[in-house]
# Entry
Amino acid sequence: MDVKCKIRALSVHAGRAITRSAMKALKKIPFIKKRIEKEYAGIMGGLESTLKPYRNNYTTFAALPEQGISREEIISEMEKLRTVEEKKWRDGYVSGAVYHGDQGHIDFLNTVYAINSQSNPLHSDIWPSTTKFESEIVSMTARMLGSLSAEDPQEICGTVSSGGTESILLAMKTYRDRAHEEFRITRPEIIAPITAHAAFDKAAQYFGIRLVHIPVDSNFRADVKAAEKAVTKNTIAIVGSAPSFPHGAVDPIEELSELARSRGIGFHTDACLGGFILPWAKSLGYDVPAFDFSLPGVTSISADTHKYGYAAKGTSVILYRGKDLRRYQYFTTTDWPGGLYFSPTFAGSRPGALSAACWAAMVSMGEKGYLDAAKRIFKTAQTIKEGIRQIPELKIFGDPLWVIAFGSDTLNIYRVMDYMTGKNWGLNGLHKPSCVHICVTLRHTQKGVAKRFIKDLQSAVEHVKAHPDEKGSMAPVYGMAATMPDRSIVGDMLKQYIDLLYKV
Ligand SMILES: *Cc1c(COP(=O)(O)O)cnc(C)c1O
# Structure
């Protein structure tokens, strides 16, 4: 059972406990509030054992041990945990999550990390090597994404961040601060398709920006006309994905970015998922619309090195058109008794070793390495798509290259997913509309994985057809969660879920 399933289970239970339409008003009454909280607690109790499987077999440290535990013992325990957990991703059973995962590559990155483990780019005087790595990561990524040369007159520039979410947060903060400074906009708005990553919602919440959602068309690509209608004098940026996380669809970036340019506003391409794989699609003969800085309206791009850049988790790149724009991202303070202080991103101290490992991944892969990886991934995805198309009960959403979302007009797709979960697969359940996706990585290019996926998927469909009355474990949950009108209840429960994660 994956995390999202559990969360949806929670929302359904709550919906049953108290009629949903009355919930919002009732929630404000203290007595009712207590009651709801008690309900939540009951549901959470049931979840706890699956979320905390190691309580019985491992020592729990709620406080520091009086005497330090020996290094050997710690490492041996961790190795045991790894053995339990690694099989699933190593053998290619999970969607996304681990993008490379070959042992040689992992060992190489670990060696690089170990060499650089003390480094912190905040102290550029002590570790100029980290500064070199980071500036080159940015430059190499910019060149891959449409920057013309190191002396590019458009000055495509950027910084390294801790991940896709931070890159997106930084870009949105940058647009907000620029709009305030240059255009006196105090009620900033961004326009993003409903399929844009949740990180844009997060940025809106964190930075007091209004997020205006626009719909997508039948191929799950942003509706340009709707974007045009949504522009106001407060719009600071328009967003498009290349591709989107849910359905792997590349938005009409050219049209959207031209719209932004014609109105003098920023345009952000979210290439977190596609930044290191889409650039190779064209030379492999796939039809991919332009999405990078070759389009004059694109003013920023996020690209995740820790996805298809094959770096270790914890790095991403945020790029801007022009140093003037990038400057709005920076933080400086001149009066702190701790000295003259500045930082390019949200963090102060940062793990320089992760940047070193990212740089090492990039230069060891090279263009050829990325091209070959993309080729293998697209080929495997092709096999998987063909297999799904052979199953009449299923339909693929849109025309994706390698993030393949599929649903069904006749079967409950979450029951299909239930069966797949029983066969060890870790697929992503999505909603609005109901579907499931597999994000193909190098793990799936291993021999036999795509075939096994299709074989299991065929059995899943046959099973669901043959057992129409079977409830499944998660299917009813997904169904009801999708119809819960009061989203604040679901939101409350997600927060309780996070509480649970931090319970020892
Ligand atoms: C993964 C992803 C992000 C966010 O990345 P994190 O590294 O998880 O913070 C943003 N946008 C898209 C399209 C993504 O796939």
